[in-house]
Amino acid sequence: MLKKINTYRRAFTKRLTKNIGHSNFEPNIALFHKAEIKNILICRPNARLGNQLLISPLIQEVATTFPGCKIDLFVKGGLSPFIFKNYENVNTIIQLPNKHFKHFGKYLKSWLSLKKKKYDLIINVEKDSSSGRLSTQFNRSKYKFLGDTNEDSQSKYKDYAHIAKYPIYNLRNYLTLFGIKDNNNPIPSLDLKLSDEEIAQGKKLVNDIIQNEKPTICIFTFATGSKCYSESWWETFYDRLKAEYENYNIIEVLPVENVSQIAFRAPTFYSRDVREIGSFIANTALFIGADSGIMHLASAAKTPTVGLFSGTNITKYEPYNNNSVAIDTNNSTIDDWIKIINTALLK
């Protein structure tokens, strides 16, 4: 029953909020002073690990555009304080509970807390997020960016479709309306901002498992729903990896569910701490895994990442930078995958 109610709630709020902001928040260049933008709210109320990691480039962009600013985050779930632990500009993190109805008091309190502070700029990351648009309208701010798509940017940038990139392209375009020079710098990478201490601890975790000098390939065999490859698919792929990379260790990072699509045949690493998992992956030569939050975590750990995609969302979620690459497994063979992996390892 709660799932049905939540489905209706999503549909209702999406219809209610789809036209918010199209005419109410036009920029006023005469009143805008870049140096006055000090307190900023970024709204991305989505609990998934991947979706929260994917706003890290936007946070870096905002911090660079407005030096010295303080950034509050309006998010969902409990991961953001860990993901953005080492982001100096991130100030307050306002968290909606994962389950609205089970923790309705906390849910309501989080929404009401938004009214306690006035912001200079509010940024809604995802234009199709009902909660994001509502929270942008709900708050007090001099300027509000609803995250609406910019057609010029769509045609100008080949990588516009990527979910970490189009919010930045759209924001850059919006700010040019205030007289801010168009920013053509490369889009920042996903970044967990691991400390030297965390990386050193991750190295110890890897060494405790392998106890040799060979470099390590990290695999992640799990994913949610249709993104998860079958056990037989992974068994075949794992056997080929072992044959091709005898001079490498292969370690499987396990999901929180503690399951393995290769029946735990490889040495394994398990942790529920996203920063510990990130520090572990940061000490490996390559990460291979299907589209998942852990794939984005590997990318944010700055490890070359090979993302395996069997659906149509490759341009939206593919890993980028740090010699990372996405593979469309529907339109390629295992021999093709090995060639791509070899290239990623040699760069």
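That was protein one. Protein two is written in the same sequence-then-structure order:
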Amino acid sequence: MSTEDTRKRSASWPLYLIGALFVVGFSSVVAWNIELPYLAYSAGPVSDAGDSVLVEDIDFYPPDGELLMLTVVTQDVNIFEAAIAGVDPTIDLVRKQAVRREGETDEEYRNRVLQQMDDSNYRSIAVALAHLGYELVPTEVVINELVEEVPAADVLQLGDTVLTVNGRDIESVDDFPPALEGYEVGDTIDMTVQRAGSDVAVEVELAEREDEPGAPMIGIVLGELTEPPFPIEIRAGDVGGPSAGMMHTIAIVDSLTEGELTHGRVIAGTGTIDLDGNVGSIGGIRQKVVAAEAAGAEYILVPEANYESALTAERDDIEIVPVATLDQAISFLETLETA
């Protein structure tokens, strides 16, 4: 190799280095801006469910302890953020399709989870007052759940108030079976619902029941709105989803009853509540255990269906208590000694 060739190679190597750095830098920028089909779940803020309960015209007994409701923060991730989440035991990656509906915008998703919170608050009030023995008068029939992938899911929404079915007035859940008599799978029925203050007429194709082949169904779970005997509401702030249902229910029971369910302790919990008082599973259980312990909770009540997953959360001393019903949750709290 000549001296001249050596000089040419020596002069060109910085250009190769600059080119390589440019490629790496460009690739990094591209990777940083590519969102993956995952959401990162991390522990979110906590608040006292008892502070959300507002009542009038009745004796009120605020808990001495705390009944913490828990939240999860979700965010889109790129390749680098996903890598960081993969080595952080307090963060989980969840596929977006498990959380978001196909084609759902951010605004649509936000409206949906806020509606879920409104529905949850109603159930918490109804279940708590029924537990305490109050008489509740039905006022409206509402859609509490929608079965996915049935025709009704395209035209009905959670929280719709059902006014008529095939021209028959619907005043209670018991009015539904007679309105569907004589119809078969694939038939179309007429429904009128109230949505956002307006009456909406829809046509609904009947689907087939999975548990009873050949039997028709709309694909909805109904509930009856009731009128409380005194003013009561839940103001949970800018929080969405149904997972605070159990804790709001317990907070109402504790606040309207003399004595202390908390026994002066810090109790955290999570789980949906249905109108029969059953506690349902939720998402982000591992992050909620982390948040509960960080907030100083001694115990966390979790849905029975989430218990095994909750045990894998990063934690030290917090005790995880599985519950399947409101009665089970209250029975556990009643066993605690005063702090």
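The helical segments are 3-32, 79-87, 106-131, 176-180, 245-255, 285-294, 307-310, 326-334. Keep this in mind for the problem set.
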